[in-house]
Design a protein that fits this description.
- The protein is α/β, with parallel strands linked by helices and about 325 residues long.
- The chain folds into two domains: about 220 residues, 3-Layer(aba) Sandwich (Aminopeptidase); about 80 residues, OB fold (Dihydrolipoamide Acetyltransferase, E2P), CATH 2.40.50.100.
- About 20% of the residues lie in helices and about 30% in strands.
- Strands 1, 2, 3, 4, 5, 6, 7, 8, 9, 10, 12, 15 and 17 form a 13-stranded mixed beta sheet that branches. A four-stranded antiparallel beta sheet has the order 14-13-11-16, with no helix packed on it.
- Helix 1 packs across helix 6.
- The longest helix is centred in the middle third of the chain and has 19 residues.
- The relative contact order is 0.13.
Length: about 325
């Protein structure tokens, strides 16, 4: 992580962020929930970094944001920065993808409704308090409490920023107006989404890597001063992603582990097994489907799974010399 020669840490961004708590109605049983938005700097470009859209994908994004703020000085700030470390507080408390109040996916609810359900009101508060006026939006997701992943989503106009995030793989994002990135892009912002990290013994490694990627991407975007040396980072472009799911419920037993996410394996490589929950016999085997199979997401531990559960996300490696077919 880039550091300057200051003798004190007083001018680090972590000490200069102004925090605002926005109360979002959550029904009679809960009352109100505080959405916390941080701001530092003034002027353009305006960068927005959001983590925790899905409650089971934290606290890795928030941790990486903290590391970024600790390592960045005010002298590096060229525009202004907005941060939302926990975009979906009730979902985070429940360690669930969506809020237990309405089970709506926050990342399908933008721009939200002030008089809607809790998640719709939360989306409206994020839209009004953070997204509107942002020039660059970086959306942080993670593997969550059950898996690890290692890729970014690239969108037209934001290819360089996506690559700067430094994920092992970059996939073309699916554009939906109701997502955070989709809505922000519709408003004219340059966007990128990161899917990296998750619960594992490598949590510190992934948080550090995400923080470095954020610093590099915000430098490319002009929100922070560019890092010396240019954009010297490799992120392998991959084709359409494929989700591997068990055909029935059982016990998942991995072969690939945490250190294998972000790697490339040949076709036919055994990734893991589905076991009968009573006999522990192998009833299904997951194998790499492509000649060069990029491992974007995996479950690293023994787990009880339902039929159709997400087990792996893989993709074919593209010819890096060819233009991306958009």
């Amino acid at each position: 992580m880039h550091r300057d020669n200051e003798a004190t840490t007083g001018s680090r961004l972590v000490n200069l962020v102004e925090w605002e708590r926005v109360s979002v109605p959550a029904g009679a049983s809960v009352g109100e929930v505080d959405l916390t938005i941080g701001r530092v700097g003034s002027g353009h470009p305006v960068g927005l970094v959001v983590a925790g859209i899905h409650g089971d994908e934290g606290p890795w994004g928030a941790w990486a944001i903290r590391k970024l703020l600790e390592a960045t000085s005010l002298g590096e700030l060229r525009g202004s920065l907005r941060i939302v470390p926990v975009a979906n507080p009730l979902a985070m408390e429940a360690d669930a993808r969506n809020s237990p109040l309405d089970s709506l996916d926050l990342n399908r609810s933008f721009p939200g409704r002030r008089e809607g359900s809790h998640t719709e009101r939360l989306a409206a508060a994020l839209t009004e308090g953070a997204v509107e006026g942002a020039d660059v939006v970086l959306d942080l997701h993670g593997g969550g409490s059950w898996c690890v992943n290692a890729f970014s989503f690239s969108f037209p106009g934001g290819e360089e920023i996506s690559r700067a995030l430094g994920a092992p793989f970059t996939a073309m994002g699916v554009e939906r107006d109701s997502t955070l990135t989709g809505y922000a892009r519709k408003q004219g912002a340059i966007v990128a989404a990161l899917e990296m990290g998750g619960r594992s013994e490598a949590e510190e490694h992934w948080a550090d890597r995400i923080a470095v990627g954020l610093r590099r991407a915000l430098g490319v975007a002009g929100v922070l001063a560019p890092l010396s040396g240019g954009l010297d980072v490799m992120s392998v472009r991959v084709g359409a992603t494929k989700v591997l799911r068990p055909s029935r419920g059982g016990v998942f037993k991995p072969i690939l582990r945490t250190s294998d996410v972000g790697t490339i394996v040949p076709v036919g490589t055994r990734l893991g097994h589905l076991l009968d929950p009573f006999t522990m016999d192998v009833v299904e085997t997951f194998e790499a489907p492509f000649s060069e199979t990029a491992i974007l997401l995996l479950r690293p531990t023994l787990a009880r799974v339902e039929g159709g559960a997400m087990t792996y996300v893989v993709a074919p490696v593209l010819d890096q010399s060819e233009k991306w077919d958009t």
